[in-house]
Amino acid sequence: MKFSTRAIHAGQEPDAATGAIMTPIFQTSTYAQTGLGGHKGYEYSRTGNPTRTALEECLAALENGSYGLAFASGLAGESAILSMLKAGDHIVSCDDLYGGTYRLFERIVGRYNIETSYVTASSIADYEKAIRPNTKLLWLETPTNPLLRLVDIRAVAEIAHRHQILVVVDNTFSSPYFQKPLDLGADIVLHSTTKYINGHSDVVGGAIITNNQEAYEALKFNQNAAGGIPGPFDAWLTLRGVKTLAVRMRQHEENALAVARYLVEHPRVEKVYYPGLPSHPDHELAKRQMSGFGGMVSFQFKGTLADVDRVVRRLKIFTFAESLGGVESLVCHPATMTHASIPQKIREARGLTDTLLRLSVGIEDAEDLLADLEYALA
């Protein structure tokens, strides 16, 4: 089955009991058993739920993975991956990354003597130089959040595997429609399903997909033991959303490219970050590694923080809010929102300034989005 067909059908056979085409919401916490060890594959809904199973199988199919696990949030999924480590282990991560991930590295696992080193996202040599004897994970976002730099997944995976290190790729910005990290050598793929996979800004969730059976068994154990799982209704909402992922992603990309091209020409815009622009430093890598450039655009605004505040207040269609990946367009100020947990000096050293805005370009009519930006920036 090709991608759109898998998104609609993988893991979602008609219900055996009733013939229902849509996967039912199995709103139950426990399951009847006939005797010792006598059950139909489900015992307790923290351990497994049929609605969640359908979602996990669908997402695994979309990423060309063997195993899928759903979580209550993207960060719950990240926590499950980090639970595979022990005190004294070391992580190498790209430096441009989601603020919540940085907070998890520095303020949670860092307390347990697990250290993280940060390297320039696009520098392959830096990853290898940062590896230590105790390095266990190479952690990548590509495209990165919020500066939309790319990491060469295949090249980093080759380095990691020479050192017997696992590669984790946060694929949230691309979605499996535009990028499949497992095919490029990654060991574990992570998603905030809150974003493009669900696509409607009405549920919070996360997912992990892998082909590594040993990693899957460790992650599955943590999913059950720590219990960071989505409820059946959240799983059902995400299944409903993923059915239209392909058509949504095509429109997100078309609109984002129009917005990026508009911003490049605007006199009040200093710099535009979008891998679909030929001027982007990683444009050629994006063409090789991805089948499309996605719906995220960031740009540096000429002015002060007060000017930025005036711009976001004037926007009418772009809503000033955190998150991304929904059908509606959003604008975010990373320095005070998604990346506020990163100290200011570190943020600015990485290029994340107070005049940076991040756009999640929705699927509205592109002409309306451009008119909205024109009014706000005037």
Automatic annotation (TrEMBL):
Keyword entries, A-Z: Pyridoxal phosphate, Transferase
Stored InterPro entries: Cys/Met-Metab_PyrdxlP-dep_enz (IPR000277), Cys_met_metab_PP (IPR054542), PyrdxlP-dep_Trfase (IPR015424), PyrdxlP-dep_Trfase_major (IPR015421), PyrdxlP-dep_Trfase_small (IPR015422)
Cofactor(s) needed for function: pyridoxal 5'-phosphate
Enzyme Commission number: 2.5.1.48
GO biological process: cysteine biosynthetic process via cystathionine; transsulfuration
Gene Ontology cellular component terms for the protein in this record: cytoplasm
N6-(pyridoxal phosphate)lysine: residues carrying this PTM: K195
GO MF term set: cystathionine gamma-lyase activity; cystathionine gamma-synthase activity; pyridoxal phosphate binding
Main enzyme class: transferase
UniProt KW Transferase keyword: yes
Record SUPFAM superfamilies: PLP-dependent transferases (SSF53383)
Signal peptide (UniProt feature, chain positions): none
UniProt xrefs under Gene3D superfamilies: Aspartate Aminotransferase, domain 1, Type I PLP-dependent aspartate aminotransferase-like (Major domain)
Keyword Transferase listed: yes
PANTHER family: CYSTATHIONINE GAMMA-LYASE, TRANS-SULFURATION ENZYME FAMILY MEMBER
Family (UniProt): Belongs to the trans-sulfuration enzymes family.
Protein name: Cystathionine gamma-synthase
Native organism: Ktedonosporobacter rubrisoli
